[in-house]
Write a structure and sequence with these properties.
115 residues; Jelly Rolls; 6-stranded antiparallel β-sheet; PITH_dom; redox-active center
């Protein structure tokens, strides 16, 4: 492939969930069948005043950043959140960026309780 340049753009994903009433988040569950293509870092933002775009997600400070390991994606792996930061959540946005040209979006579940 002399003279050919391959450029891969990072793949990004933003997911926002709004709740009908304030909740307390205490952990997150991620499932992925292929860790090689699963996200390695996830940023979590809460109670944003407006919709977030990819540029906002990259330059904004997250409420919590999760550096993920393979065990975090196993069936029994619960990822604890910093409980004091997630006491009055009306919306949560999850962002991740992968440096590869393939992305397997994980299944995720946020565990919460009502006030």
């Amino acid at each position: 492939m002399d003279g050919t340049k391959l450029i891969f753009s990072p793949l990004q994903l933003l997911i926002t969930m709004a709740f009908n009433q304030p909740v307390k988040l205490f952990s997150m569950k991620l499932l992925s069948s292929d860790f090689a293509q699963a996200p390695k870092c996830v940023k979590i933002f809460i109670n944003l005043p407006r919709s977030m775009d990819f540029d906002d997600a990259e330059r904004s400070e997250a409420t919590q950043t999760l550096d993920l390991a393979e065990e975090d994606f196993k069936d029994d792996g619960l990822i604890p959140l910093r409980y004091v930061k997630f006491q009055n959540v009306q919306s949560v946005t999850v962002s991740h960026l992968t440096p590869t040209n393939h992305l397997q979006a994980p299944h995720f579940l946020v565990l919460y309780s009502f006030f």
